[in-house]
Amino acid sequence: MNLFTFLDQIYQKKKDSVVTDMSTNIVLTKWLSFDASNLKTLKKILTYLFYIEPLHYYYLLYFNIVKKNKTPFLNKSTKIEIKDDKLLNKIQYIMGWSNRELSYNMEILTKCILIDRKRWNRELGVS
Asked: Which domain does 53 fall in, by range?
């Protein structure tokens, strides 16, 4: 199972079959400790980590962590869309630049070339 699924189950008290091991419990404890409201509870529970079975430790976390509607620190990541600029791609190809070099020289390009886009489109043969 996914670690974030375990975190959702603990915070939102969703019932599902669980198979855990020691490493999963250690990582879960680490992630739960990022929420400051859980620190006192985790400090008490952590003493049992190596003395009880991993499944029992998971249930101990499940029953002692306070229910929250939204899991903290887990925001859905959004993919950043990069616009494909034909003029910049042509300049990058002609100069033999990598993407990093293009972003490094972007300030110079905007001051010199991208001000008069029509002229440079005609000059470089970009339609």
From this structure: 3-64
Q: Is residue 100 part of a domain?
A: yes
Separation of CA 62 from chain center:
24
Q: Which two tokens stand for residue 13?
A: 């008290």
% of the chain residues with pLDDT over 90: 40
Q: Identify which has the larger pLDDT, 28 or 1.
A: 28
pTM: 0.57
DSSP string, 19-58: ---HHHHHHHHHHHTTSGGGHHHHHHHGGGTTTS-HHHHH
Q: Are residues 9 and 58 in the same domain?
A: yes
For residue 72, being part of any structural domain is answered with no
